[in-house]
Amino acid sequence: MRPALDIRAHLDTRGTAILLSISLILIVAFAALGGLLQPAVVPGGSSDVNFTVIALSLPLTLIIPIIAVMITAGEWSDGSIQNTFLQRPGRAGVLGSKVLAAIAVIAALVVMSLALAALTTWIGGELLGEGAVFDTFDTVLTTQLATLAATLLFSLAMGVALQSTVLGLLAAIGFPFVIGTASGVATITGSETVVDVVRALDLQTAAVTFADGDAGAFELLPLLLLVILPAAYGAWRWNHREVG
């Protein structure tokens, strides 16, 4: 596996340069909105790092699927995967390398986002408001980071399984939105069957439950249905799909 090669190949394209530029602008803007404006709108005039990360999660839930799907499925869509397989014959190694590359790029982006969130929270709280709140950082780890990790896993599974940029993005971005809407509808209906069906497909909620340490066997079902099975099918298809 050569993840560094896949990272360079991903970063060297014009599309990636545009995407990363827009992503960085959005991350800085939402970090500033979350951290600097809190003292003006929150009672007490403090700035809480948890609220700042919640604001940052909005662009990150779109940026993470785009990067993950582009790295894992992009070469299938533009046809360059044929050249990659000619240069690197081990298909399983190429797949593993691309998955590691996607995880590395997104992990760097998330770490940078958390650092920006901490910085803007400190500036907003200590310099512009009545104090910065960092005691809620454990909540960040068990809620926002768990949700982003679930988004990454699902996006990787969709990119590997569908091997198409368009289909992968539609699934990775659209499905969580549909499940979020269905969860509200299921609660309104009051039907335990409908609630359980939606719960079985709600990976983000299962991830938060796992991070809280309250997960049971049922919370493994979204991981199995939405990550493990699609990824296993995608790995099989990756190794057997005809190129060209």
UniProtKB/TrEMBL annotation:
Keywords: Membrane, Transmembrane, Transmembrane helix
Keyword DNA-binding in annotation: no
Transmembrane intervals: 17-37, 49-74, 95-123, 143-162, 169-189, 220-238
Name listed for the protein in its UniProt record: ABC-type transport system involved in multi-copper enzyme maturation permease subunit
Species this chain originates from: Brachybacterium sacelli
